[in-house]
From TrEMBL, chain A:
Protein's name in the database: Small ribosomal subunit protein uS3c
Pfam families with a match to the protein in the record: Ribosomal_S3_C
Keyword Plastid: yes
Designated gene of the protein: rps3
Source species of the chain: Marchantia polymorpha subsp. ruderalis
GO CC annotations, alphabetized: chloroplast; cytosolic small ribosomal subunit
Matching NCBIfam families: rpsC_bact
Automatic annotation (TrEMBL), chain B:
Signal peptide residues on this chain, from the entry's feature table: none
Alphabetized PROSITE patterns for the sequence: RIBOSOMAL_S10
Name assigned to this protein: Small ribosomal subunit protein uS10 domain-containing protein
NCBIfam families the record matches: uS10_euk_arch
């Protein structure tokens, strides 16, 4: 038995696209990378402040950043766009302004788009957030896992695996529990597997949630 | 706009520069060969449509930047190494054309992930 490689990184050339797609020469690479991180952090902060509360979760599956010379394209894939588009008619103007303030030089245009995902619970990020919310409200973990699998099965997925690690149900001794439905072939590169790790903060500590969703084969 | 620039004797010269032909070198770099070749082909097609003299895409040798790190966070275990690499592909296209036409062409074909650099070497 050994360690498992992150299935996203494993499939980067095939069946998985880069989430940041740009080119920069080695001298400027670190600066552009830092900027990417700042954009993502800003979006995460905005979602945390405005949307997340005890009964709601952010619903952002992923953020893709593409750069061309003088244009930065940020695409936010979300399962619940209505949450991000708060006031009528304003859309994501506030978020766009926040991100623009962070970007250092203003001579680059920023284009931010919201893309809605058809079946939100088919994305591991959104599913993991849902599980975390349940665990933080002290729902029994096994029931949460089963409910999450049921939610995911509504979309057309071929397999799902959920692993929760930590002080389950507040026990003193931490352990790892996982539930699987269908098949999740991690060794098959042409299998389109989406993966997410999310940490749930409970009063007993941190519960690590890992979700693998096998969508289809190539 | 030409009327509002008092101290620009070169303004007339700029008008004339539309006729003078410059040697222009376009350097395209990218990590991704397919996008790079596509942008190359688009640029050359655009230039040939305007009937400019084009020196076809010269493919520079690929630069491979390798980073080799231990997989282990501690020193224990068999010494397994990760070999990450970043491949930079570079193409060079030479044109003989006035600079405005070049700006037109380069503004049309831009793909994400391809860096375009234009240098003008005055003849």
């Amino acid at each position: 038995m050994g360690q498992k490689i992150n299935p996203l990184g494993f499939r980067l050339g095939i069946t998985q696209n880069h989430r940041s797609y740009w080119f920069a020469k080695p001298k400027k690479y670190s600066k552009v990378f830092e900027e990417d991180k700042k954009i993502r952090d800003c979006i995460e902060l905005y979602v945390q402040k405005h949307i997340k509360n005890s009964s709601n979760y952010g619903g952002i599956a992923r953020v893709e950043i593409k750069r061309k010379t003088d244009l930065i394209q940020v695409e936010i894939y979300t399962g619940f766009p209505a949450l991000l588009v708060e006031s009528r008619g304003q859309g994501i103007e506030q978020l766009k302004l926040n991100v623009q303030n962070i970007l250092s030089s203003g001579d680059r245009r920023l284009r931010m788009t919201l893309i809605e995902i058809a079946k939100p619970y088919g994305e591991p990020n959104i599913l993991a957030e849902y599980i975390a919310l349940q665990l933080e409200s002290r729902v029994a973990f096994r029931r949460t896992m089963k409910k999450a699998i049921e939610l995911a099965k509504k979309g057309n997925i071929k397999g799902i695996k959920i692993q929760i690690a930590g002080r389950l149900n507040g026990a003193e001794i931490a352990r790892v529990e996982w539930a699987r439905e269908g098949r999740v072939p991690l060794q098959t590169i042409r299998a389109r597997i989406n993966y997410c790790y999310y940490a749930a903060q409970t009063i007993y500590g941190v519960l690590g949630i890992k979700v693998w969703i096998f969508q289809d084969e190539e | 706009m030409a009327a509002a620039l008092p101290m620009k004797p070169g303004k007339v010269g700029v008008e004339e520069a539309a006729e003078t032909v410059h040697r222009i070198r376009i350097t395209l770099s990218s990590k991704n060969v397919k996008n790079l070749e596509k942008v190359c082909a688009d640029l050359i097609k655009g230039a040939k449509d305007k009937r400019l003299k084009v020196k076809g895409p010269v493919r520079m040798p690929t630069k491979v930047m390798r980073i080799t790190t231990r997989k282990s966070p501690c020193g224990e275990g068999t010494n397994t190494w990760d070999g990450f690499e970043l491949r930079v592909h570079k193409r060079v296209i030479d044109l003989h054309s006035p600079s405005e036409v070049v700006k037109q062409i380069t503004s049309i074909t831009i793909e994400p992930g391809v860096e375009v650099e234009v240098t003008i070497a005055d003849v």
